[in-house]
Design a protein that fits this description.
By secondary structure, this protein is an alpha/beta fold. The protein contains 14 helices and 13 strands. Strands 3-4-2-1-5-7-8-6 form an 8-stranded mixed sheet, sandwiched between helices. A 5-stranded mixed sheet has the order 10-9-11-12-13, sandwiched between helices. A hairpin with a 5-residue loop joins strand 11 and strand 12. The radius of gyration is 22 Å and the shape is elongated. The chain starts with 11 loop residues before the first strand and ends with a strand.
Length: about 375
């Protein structure tokens, strides 16, 4: 990359724009600001990079056009109607501004099932890859007009992380109304310090996050950004939380690196990246300390290390693996139904056949189908 800057080290990146940045409290688009962001995106492409945008704002725009209260979020039906109305305006806006920079926009509306189902995930991945390789800028949003409370991403932070895995991107930039993760809420404590770099997301870090958003239009606060960071870094992508309040937010970050960078773990293969980013699982397999150490060294999960199971999963379902504290440390495809896992828990492989009445499989979860979180 010719500019040699921090962002230039990433051939493909995902930029997420929150509702509070794109739409002001009255429901009016911040058009002048958005034009500066689009100019930044054009600059990235001019340097040979590929960019996709995850854009919120459809519900906020639609609510204003329909005259709905509470920003269109008074009920699920209001949100769906607002999303259907606002999405066409949102897509048109992005297409218009990108065209002024000589770029082509494409629209993709995704549901949770599109990225949780393996076949549909691969279809979305192939579409993203082709669009971006053609120099097109995909503009992506959750399909809120059909999503329900039970089956949805919940916020576009997590959607952006999942899109990064599907697109094979190695960087996610969450443009927000805050400039990163702080030790305490900076709005409540002037002694708050911004954390510039995070290499491990643990319980202490999660405790720093707040669940509230600074905007009534958004659907997630810092807690959702940490959840997104866990998804992204687990799949091998770095994630940045940076302020988008000023003009040219990408250029501004590039020049001053003001934000929090969550550093990815080792780059995952495609299937394991999909597993790491799953938001829905069918159950949990609990393991002892010996099994935890074996998993850390890259081994398969054997029955002798299993202490129990919860859920109603079947063979081939995605399950979490947790230690005695109940915190998920890995995720994989179970080789046994939940009832059989409970029956063989703690057994040596040689004893499984006598318990189940048939030859055992090599592992409860094979290492080829298991990813650490």
């Amino acid at each position: 990359m010719s500019d040699g800057g921090f962002l230039a080290g990433y051939p493909r990146l995902i930029v997420k724009v929150g509702s509070s940045l794109l739409v002001d409290p009255s429901g009016t688009v911040r058009r002048a600001w958005l034009a500066t962001l689009v100019a930044d995106v054009a600059a990235r492409l001019a340097h040979g990079q590929q960019v996709a945008v995850v854009s919120s704002g459809a519900i906020a725009l639609g609510a204003r056009r329909l005259g709905l209260t509470k920003g269109g979020r008074a009920s699920l039906e209001d949100a769906q109607a607002a999303a259907a109305t606002g999405q066409i305006a949102l897509a048109g806006l992005w297409a218009e501004l990108l065209e002024k920079e000589g770029l082509t926009a494409a629209q993709m509306l995704l549901t949770l099932d599109d990225l949780e189902d393996r076949r549909r995930y691969l279809n979305a991945s192939a579409t993203l890859d082709r669009l971006m390789s053609l120099g097109v800028v995909p503009v992506i949003n959750e399909n809120d007009s059909v999503a329900t409370q039970e089956i949805r991403f919940g916020d576009n932070d997590r959607l952006a992380a999942r899109v990064a895995a599907a697109a094979g991107a190695r960087l996610v930039i969450l443009l927000s109304d805050v400039d990163g993760l702080h030790t305490v809420d900076p709005a409540r404590d002037q002694k708050a310090k911004r954390i510039e770099r995070v290499t491990r997301i643990d319980t202490d870090l999660i405790a720093m996050a707040t669940t509230g958003s600074a905007s009534s239009m958004g659907s997630g606060g810092m807690a959702s950004k940490i959840a997104a960071a866990r998804l992204a870094t687990g799949a091998g992508a770095d994630l940045i939380v940076a302020s988008g309040r000023e003009d040219h937010p990408l250029r501004r970050f590039e020049s001053g690196k003001i934000g929090t960078v969550f550093v990815a773990s080792a780059r995952q293969k495609s299937r394991k990246a999909w597993l790491a980013g799953r938001l829905t699982v069918r159950g949990t397999i609990f393991v002892d300390d010996g099994a935890l150490r074996a998993l850390e060294s890259g081994a398969s999960l054997l029955a002798i290390g299993v202490s129990g199971a919860s859920g109603t999963f079947r063979r081939g379902d995605v399950v979490d693996v947790a230690g005695s504290g109940g915190v998920a440390v890995a995720r994989g495809l179970s080789e046994y139904d939940a009832a059989d896992v409970a029956r063989i828990a703690g057994l040596k492989t040689a004893a499984i056949a006598g318990t189940l009445g048939h030859a055992p499989r090599a592992a409860v979860i094979h290492r080829d189908h298991l990813v650490r979180l």
